[in-house]
Design brief:
Strand content: under 5%
Radius of gyration: 53 Å
CATH architecture of one domain: 2-Layer Sandwich
Order of helices and strands: EHEHHHHEEHEH
Number of helices: 7
Strand order of the largest sheet: 4-3-5
CATH class of one domain: Alpha Beta
Length: 297
């Protein structure tokens, strides 16, 4: 008895499965085949694209994905605000005081002028009590200090510019003074005007030729006479040389301040030079007086 089976009329589709690594291709030349089965899925084309991208990124070992919650930042130049004083609902007044949540005493809340409960803004600032006001938020100030004038540096220094007439800077070889130079000239001009209007500008001041010697003594503290070979100690006291040595034999202390001199007495060069200049001036005055007396006779 023979059995007969009916062959299926569906054609089978086969595909070649590629090896993962090149080494596996060299080792085995066997190609495996598998039957493709089409299955229906309820996913949309957008979901399929996302799955395809995720599979590729997973194969590379790198995955990036956005949360999708970020808001688009538009160009709001016309409505943008600059709030540096705090939110609009937090202003000077009752609302700002309530934020501390601290009781600082009854006297600290005493008000000497009437205070309104409404918000303090630029519009109603005229009729509200004195105090800091919230600045406007729709005003943005930009400041630029131009320390370099728009003058072509090459043309000013050399008289030649490689850009020619197409240079965006001004071709001028004139000298321009800086602000501090103009201020200095103005102050000099005002000083000259003040000197011209001064009624005492023609007065001649006679300088005193005699140098002030108030810091130097005019006589010895020991002998109470004029200096003879003056010397000075470490404590800046002046004596005659003979008087200082005689006093040191009695006691090593200074005659003026009782400080130990250690036997050190230096020549008072400054005092000697001033005494010599004083003697010279006295002689000159004596000669002038003698000449005047002779002329009168």
């Amino acid at each position: 008895m023979e059995l007969a089976f009916k062959k299926s009329s569906k054609k089978k589709v086969f595909r070649k499965r590629a090896a993962l690594d090149d080494e596996q291709e060299e080792d085995s030349k066997v190609v495996s085949a598998s039957q493709l089965k089409k299955r229906k899925s309820g996913k949309t084309p957008e979901d399929r694209e996302d799955i395809h991208i995720d599979e590729n990124m997973t194969a590379l070992g790198v995955a990036f994905k956005a949360s999708g919650t970020a808001m688009e930042l538009g160009n709001d130049s016309a409505t943008r605000t600059l709030d540096i004083d705090g939110a609009e609902d937090i202003i000077a007044g009752d609302q700002a005081e309530k934020l501390d949540n601290l009781y600082t005493g009854k006297d600290n809340y005493k008000e000497y002028i009437n205070k309104k409960k409404e918000k303090i803004t630029q519009k109603n600032a005229g009729g509200i009590r004195a105090g800091p006001l919230k600045g406007q938020t729709n005003v943005r100030i930009s400041c630029r200090f131009d320390y370099a004038p728009a003058i072509c540096k090459d043309y000013k220094e050399t008289g030649y510019c490689g850009f020619g007439d197409g240079c965006v800077f001004m071709h001028d070889r004139g000298d321009y003074k800086m602000g501090w130079e103009l201020d200095k000239e103005w102050e000099e001009m005002q000083r000259k005007k003040a000197e011209e209007n001064d009624p005492n500008r023609f007065f001649v001041e006679v300088e005193n030729e005699v140098e002030s010697d108030d810091d130097l003594p005019f006589a010895c503290l020991i002998c109470r006479g004029d200096f003879k070979s003056p010397v000075v100690t470490k404590c800046k006291h002046y004596f005659c040389e003979a008087c200082a040595i005689k006093q040191f034999k009695k006691t090593p202390g200074c005659y003026a301040c009782n400080q130990n001199t250690q036997g050190v007495f230096n020549v008072a060069k400054e005092l000697v030079s001033k005494l010599d200049a004083k003697k010279k001036r006295m002689k000159e005055k004596e000669l002038e007086i003698q000449k005047q007396m002779q002329e009168e006779e």
